[in-house]
Amino acid sequence: MLEAARCIVVRDLLVAWRRRSDVATALLFFVIVTSLFPLGIGAEPELLRSIAPGVIWVAALLSCMLSLGRLFAADHADGTLEQLLLSSEPLGVIAAAKALAHWLVSGLPLVLIAPLIALQYDLPAPLYPVLALSLLLGTPVLSLIGAIGAALTLGLRGGGVLLSLLVLPLYVPVLIMGAGSVDMAAAGLAPDGQLLLLAALLIVAAAFAPWAIAAALRISME
Amino acid sequence: MGGYGLYVWGAYGVTFLLIGVEIALLVNRSRKCSETKT
Amino acid sequence: MTAQSVKWFWYASPQTFYPVAGVIARWCGAAAAVLCAAGLYIGLFVAPTDAQQGEAYRIIFIHVPAAWMSMFIYVVMAFWAAIGLAFNTRLSHMMASALAPTGALFTFIALWTGSFWGKPTWGTWWVWDARLTSELILLFLYFGFMALQAAIDDRRRAERAGALLAIVGVVNVPIIYYSVQWWNTLHQGASVSLTRAPSMAATMLTGMLVMALAFWMYSIAVTLLRVRCLILENR
Question: Which of C43, C24, C23 has the alpha carbon at shortest distance from C216?
Fold first, then answer.
């Protein structure tokens, strides 16, 4: 079972590596979006410092969501997905492995790039760890919940936009807790509550989302 | 309505208007699908 | 294999349910009209004027029942979705699909009346308070459900995909509600919630409950009518 999971993660990473530009564009999107806000709102440092957590988190949300289309589409097109459904390995494990690979490629880089963006927004240095940790805990949840949406909208005309409508409301708690943790730290209070809630969301998502993803895949592939 | 007429009637009015619209659409749909009974 | 075990699914057959739905819808529709008249009478004439908010508070008699219904209908929708997935009964899925538009309507009404209540009381047309924000997200959840079902051509896949989405949604609704609550207290501080009604006179509560019952009867009637249409359209 773990062997199968490892196999899938490695394969997905290999596929992503071969299509590096796809991955890079999603990350570039994150950077570009965060650059747009100062252009739209004004570059006053005080203002930027206060909106930074929210902006970075919303950009992370959108970036993650945009890359979800790639999660099952390629496998669906060349028939791999059908084979995965027929395999003797539990579909939930396969789903979890794909979500993990997705996070490694689309979520983890955001955690690493975020401090640079925070620098642009003149966020005080002590907040960087909180920001990074909140993203580290939150982006896997985004991948997991997003995967449910991606599985439900497999092959549909509405495609990406429909996926956004389905998944963004479900992302709200993660956004609130994630941005909230950095806000609390910025106000000088301990962000422990929000970070712990994020961890809780991650555990619950990791426990239940794979089965929902598996169910969704079966529904979409019948 | 003590000066708040616009708000109170604006709220109640739109509510019952929308409810009416829902009923009308449903009656229309009901008529259409019972007509095309194969 | 007893007659007892068969009975559960007797009304799960669309043909059997069709006339039953019609009868129930008629009675509930009548009840809704009566209750609505009573509720409006209590709300607009019997209940006393509020000391702080004046006559504007009377919007509460629509706003709160609509908000209650919007959340209740979502739960019921998710219930039928779960039954549909578990027992593979098409009628259950049709119930879920039939509930969605009415649920979305009540959510919109809650938002609209909430906005109209906010303007005279707090000065702005929109307030990012916990309840209104949660209602807004609930509206998106309803729209997502309806959009997903509309986007899939294969009826069976559409029903089952929507059902899964509804179940995922209903699990998330409490999480969303509490995180929005927390967010609201952080950003608005000690300001009074838009929806905290002034000290409730008994008549005010009665009015709200009667209107809530009226909306409930209305929802049942409208939903059953819609299910009848769905049954005819999907033969």
Answer: C24
Instruction: Give the C-alpha separation, A141 to A135, whole Å.
Output: 10
Domain ranges of chain A: 3-221
Contact B11 C117 (CB under 8 A): yes
Distance from CA of C116 to the nearest CA of B (A): 5
Contact assessment for residue A185 and residue A127, using Cβ atoms and an 8 Å cutoff: yes
Q: What is the pTM of this model?
A: 0.91
CB contact under 8 A, C148 and A166: yes
CB-based burial label for C12 (10 Å; 0-12, 13-18, 19+): middle
Q: Say whether B2 and C55 touch across the interface (CB within 8 A).
A: yes
Contact A214, A91 (CB under 8 A): yes
CA-to-CA distance for A80 and A206, rounded, in angstroms? 24
Residues 6+ apart with CB under 8 A from A157: C151
C201: phi then psi, degrees, rounded to nearest 5: -70, 155
B30 to chain C, closest Cα gap in Å = 6
Name the CA dihedral angle for A143, A149, A155, A157, rounded to a multiple of 10 degrees.
-120
CB of A72 closer than 8 Å to CB of A98: yes
Chain C residue nearest residue A189, CA to CA: C186
| Test the C interface: residue of B4, B23, B31 with most C CBs within 10 Å | B4
DSSP string of A162-187? HHHHHHHHHHHHHHHHHHHHHHHHHT
Q: Return per-residue pLDDT of chain C as tens, 235 residues.
A: 454 555 667 777 888 889 999 999 999 999 999 999 999 998 888 877 777 777 888 888 999 999 999 999 999 999 999 999 999 999 999 999 999 999 999 999 999 999 998 888 888 888 888 888 999 999 999 999 999 999 999 999 999 999 999 999 999 999 998 899 888 877 654 444 555 555 567 888 889 999 999 999 999 999 999 999 999 988 7
**What's the rounded Cα separation, in Å, for the pair A191 and A177?**
10
Q: Which amino acid is at A69?
A: G
Contact yes or no for C97/B10 (Cβ under 8 A): no
CB pairs under 8 A between B and C: 66
The reply to whether residue A165 touches residue C137, judged by beta carbons under 8 angstroms, is no
| Complex-level ipTM | 0.91
Q: What is the DSSP string of C22-84?
A: HHHHHHHHHHHHHHHHHHHHIIIIISPPBTTTBGGGGGHHHHHHHHHHHHHHHHHHHHHHHHH
- Convert the pLDDT of each residue in A167-190 to its tens digit: 999 999 999 999 999 999 999 899
The tokens for C59 are 């919007």
Q: In this complex, do C151 and A157 lie within 8 Å of one another by their Cβ atoms?
A: yes
